[in-house]
User: Fold this.
Amino acid sequence: MKAKVYVRLKKSIADPQGTAIKGMLNKIGFSKVEDVRIGKLIELDLGDVAKEDAEVQLNEMCKKLLANTVIEDYRFEIEG
Amino acid sequence: MKFGIIVFPGSNCDIDCYHALKVELKQNVEYIWHDTENIDDFDCIILPGGFSYGDYLRCGAAAANTRIMESVKEHAQRGKLVIGICNGFQVLTEVGLLPGALIRNEKLKFICDVAPVRVENNESPFTNQLVEGQIINLPIAHGEGNYVATEETLKELKENKQILFTYQKNPNGSILDIAGICNEKRNVLGMMPHPERACEALLGNIDGKAIFESIILSLQGGTKK
Assistant:
């Protein structure tokens, strides 16, 4: 079972990296870009697990390690 | 009275802390390797600066999930002292012993400098040898020192006087100029500046010494200068 976890900074948290990239894009000809936010994509192979178990596990993984829920939101997609 | 410095793979200020405590302050101090379980012997645990586990994923995230941090949580619950410096502060927020989080510096650059820091509250085991309003100069060296927290957390920090140190000139975008905070019980301190790098006269700055002297005094049962 494969899964993708997306971790993003919460809307309320400033993203200095995104702001810098936005400035850069504006400078190289993409002047209309108004906002850039940078997050993480984590691809996992969960091995042989049932879909329901995978969901439970992914939630636990995100809360324990993959995301810091003080500053980040997460969501995941299970493939197949 | 015994100090313990936890060493994770990637810690790099552990030796500075050891030197400050052993040589400059003549204390009983030992390194504690990160897979140690029993830390009952220690009165004050120090989580040093550095890049534990390569800062992979997020600073402090991997260290926060180690067995020894369970012991550190128990140690703190018993009211014993914990101090996290720089990466140690990041670990303490990741593990939930301190509120908020530390994100990328506002200007994205790693900053290595000396920062004038204001003592906001001297009624703590970490600051009793300092004076409220006093400015001390402490080295900073971090890429992720930008403290963030919810409005609610900030309100609590202010009301409980948990903000112990603020920057005079905010170097990293940290909210309310926060450089160091403690928990509500006042036995866990997290700070981005490095007091251990300011304990040796030969290096030109001993402003950090008072923080360790405060800890020593409070472990001896005293509270005031």
Remarks:
- The two ends of chain A are 7 Å apart (CA to CA).
- DSSP finds two helices and three strands in chain A.
- Chain A has a mean pLDDT of 95.
- Chain A touches chain B at residues 9, 12-14, 16-17, 20, 64-66, 68, 70-71 (CB under 8 Å).
